[in-house]
Specification:
single chain; 452 residues; mainly alpha; Hydantoin permease; 77% helix; binds phenylalanine; SNS_sf; Na/ntran_symport; Transporter; symport; YocR/YhdH-like
């Protein structure tokens, strides 16, 4: 690295260490495509109205997700700092940054348990290829005894190690390289598994469930779930897109990048649905719930198909890759913050943040066994971290971005590269539509408002 006269490590790191144009788009797609697309999306689609829900989700992505995504990227590139200092620089006031710190905490909190699930997917890849997953046909008890023991802790360590090492290697040499190899790899895996799923006997019923809309199945609640998921799926409200935006060069069009990321996220969700629904319908499996769908229901399908352990392995590797590229973006938020605020070198910041986040995550890894009974308010440690970060910090972060860009930051349009009618539409969505909808989801997820 060049000598650094200003002694501002983040500035110097940014100058020498930036994404290439495609590198940025791939890294942002890597962040957005994660466990959210691969297991949460198919399962909530199953629960909240199938194809009709999918259409609402697309609407939410376009009209709320995209404008906020572009705003986050613009704040990052315009403010050139962490999720705290970018707000301070652009607004000239400390108050905005104080809220930005909630996003740093949110990313840290999500990562502490996201790393645990990333670990599960790696364990499942291994036991699929060795075949030990298929030795006992009771997949529910296999899953229960795995997550109830101490093995998840070892996999959590591995997930954090990989994430920390990638981040320590820097933006171009670490994060960009990692995503440039893995995101196209992910597409290949998805296509192989989709072809496998769609050619199974009886796959049509799964496709129909996923893609043939029945609007009578939609409820107000499903609309809110779709909206909340659009935020989670695009990695919004946690400072991740903002932090990546910090490392984008001046010439890149942020508008095009945002559209590419939104489209990429949607494609991966679509294909994930075209893998999971045909596969489970073909084997007569109920579209179960959450982690259960992927870890307990799908293995039965793999066990029954020829070369099942290979397809099982590919599927879980796919999940692991999707999870790790998102994990890298989550942990980068507090790492950039530590470099900026505490003036640490990247390597040092990566080391400490990874270590502390792992320690905070240990009880989450044990929440399904030894610590399962520690559940104040009916939620385990894992559930609390998920609840507070996804349902409280994420909407607060999203609201901050919309209000800041819509009302406080006068030069937002310039940074985002928008003029004329498109700029006006963007501002309208950021000022009026997105904040109102975010507040409604927020109250809904806290249980303040209820729908039957
Ligand atoms: N978008 C990721 C997923 O779909 C999760 C995520 C949320 C990542 C927030 C970063 C920030 O799994």
């Amino acid at each position: 690295m060049l000598p650094n006269p200003s002694n501002n490590k983040l500035q110097s790191a940014q100058l020498g260490d930036q994404f290439s144009s495609t590198g940025f788009i791939l890294a942002a797609i890597g962040s957005s495509v994660g466990l959210g697309n691969m297991w949460k999306f198919p399962y909530i689609t199953g629960m909240y109205g199938g194809a009709a829900f999918f259409l609402v989700f697309i609407g939410c992505l376009i009209f709320v997700g995209l404008p906020v995504l572009l705003a986050e990227m613009a704040i990052g590139r315009g403010g050139r700092g962490s999720a705290v200092s970018a707000f301070n620089t652009l607004s000239g006031s400390k108050y905005w940054g104080a809220f930005g710190f909630l996003a740093v905490l949110g990313a840290f909190a999500i990562m502490s348990y996201y790393g645990v699930i990333a670990g599960w997917t790696m364990h499942y890849s291994l036991i699929s290829i060795t075949g030990s997953l298929f030795e006992n046909a009771d997949y529910t008890s296999t899953f229960g005894s795995f997550v109830g023991g101490y093995t998840p802790l070892i996999w959590t360590v591995i997930a954090f190690l990989v994430t920390g090492v990638v981040i320590a290697r820097g933006i171009k040499g670490g994060i960009e390289k990692f995503n440039k190899i893995l995101i196209p790899g992910l597409m290949i895996l998805l296509v192989i598994l989709m072809v496998r799923g769609l050619t199974l006997p009886g796959a049509g019923a799964g496709v129909e469930f996923f893609l043939k809309p029945d609007f009578s199945k939609l409820t107000t609640q499903s609309v809110l779930v779709a909206l909340g998921h659009a935020f989670f799926s695009l990695s919004l409200g946690m400072g991740t897109m903002l932090t990546y935006g910090t490392y984008v060069h001046r010439q890149q069009s942020l508008g095009k990048a945002a559209v590419a990321v939104g489209f990429g996220d949607l494609m991966y969700a679509l294909i994930a649905g075209l893998i999971i629904f045909p596969t489970i319908f073909s084997y007569g499996i109920e579209p179960g719930q959450g982690p259960g769908l992927v870890f307990m229901a799908l293995p039965a399908a793999f066990a029954a198909m020829p070369l099942g352990n290979l397809f099982g392995f590919l599927f879980f590797i796919l999940l692991a890759v999707a999870a790790l590229t998102s994990a890298v973006s989550l942990l980068e938020v507090p790492v950039t913050w530590a470099m900026d605020k505490l003036k640490m070198s990247r390597a040092k910041a990566a080391f400490w943040v990874t270590l502390i986040c792992f320690i905070v995550g240990i009880p989450s890894a044990l929440s399904f066994g030894v610590l399962a009974d520690f559940a104040p308010g009916g939620k385990t440690y894992f559930d609390w971290f998920d609840f507070i970060s996804s349902n409280v910090l994420l909407p607060v972060g999203g609201l901050l971005v919309t209000l800041f860009t819509g009302y406080a930051w006068k030069r937002a349009g310039e940074e985002a590269g928008l003029t004329g009618p498109i700029y006006k539409i963007w501002m309208f969505l950021l000022r009026y539509v997105a904040p109102v909808l975010i507040i409604v989801i927020f109250l809904f997820s806290l249980g303040v408002i209820k729908f039957e």
